[in-house]
Design goal:
Helix 2 crosses helix 6 (135-161), helix 3 (33-55) crosses helix 4 (74-99) and helix 3 (33-55) runs parallel beside helix 5 (106-133). The longest helix has 28 residues, at 106-133. The chain has helices spanning 5-17, 19-28, 33-55, 74-99, 106-133, 135-161, 166-190. By secondary structure, the chain is mostly helical. It has one domain (5-58, 71-164). It contains 7 helices and no strands.
């Protein structure tokens, strides 16, 4: 299969029309794991760079003078993205794949993550264009894009694991995140990093 801009564009468009079919086509490519890791790194780097640039054009709230505002560096964003994608791979492989009886492999989940990053990059390009014209419209577009990506993710995960219902995937993901947050809080409290009074 020749990777060209029109082909990737058609896959992205199909992901909004028929996400299951688009994900099935991505998985059918059967790319080597070394290639997948390379694409994963490139997709994450491109998304972070574009998101960082777009952030300069988004409207900022009016805050009282002297208010400290946290402005993450690109390195922080890279770390945050890698951590979030690591959680997604864990949920997709261990939780959905092993515990929920899914049939997808690690490479399938990694392909899913890469495809989502490619879609995110495309959406960020559109958001940047909107930000240059209507800054507040870009913020609203970002919210809508995240909602759509969650919808896509549920269908992607259902496709690679052979689940019939995307709602089942969504509910399972919410439950998994809830359990992980509780376990993480217990670990942080045990290590003295998170005070008990703060809960």
């Amino acid at each position: 299969m020749e990777f060209s801009f029109p082909y990737v564009k058609s896959l992205i468009v199909k992901s909004f029309q028929d996400p299951r079919s688009a994900m099935a086509e991505v998985v059918s490519l059967q790319l080597p794991r070394q290639t997948l890791w390379l694409l994963f790194a490139l997709a994450c780097a491109a998304s972070v760079i574009l998101s960082y640039v777009t952030g300069f054009f988004l409207p900022r709230p009016d805050l009282p003078e002297g208010t400290l505002v946290f402005e993450p560096s690109p390195f922080f964003l890279v770390g945050l993205l890698l951590a979030s994608q690591g959680v997604l791979i864990f949920l997709g492989t261990v939780v959905a794949g092993r515990m929920a009886g899914g049939q997808g492999s690690f490479d399938d989940v990694l392909s899913l993550v890469i495809f989502q990053q490619v879609i995110l990059f495309a959406l960020n390009v559109i958001q940047l264009i909107i930000a240059l014209i209507i800054p507040y419209g870009a913020a609203l577009f970002g919210i809508g894009a995240m909602i759509i990506m969650v919808w896509q993710l549920c269908h992607f995960m259902a496709q690679i694991h052979g689940f019939k219902s995307a709602v089942f995937v969504f509910m399972g993901g919410v439950a998994s995140i809830f359990v992980i947050s509780i376990v993480l809080s217990i670990v942080l409290i045990s290590l003295g990093i998170l005070p008990l009074e703060g809960l």
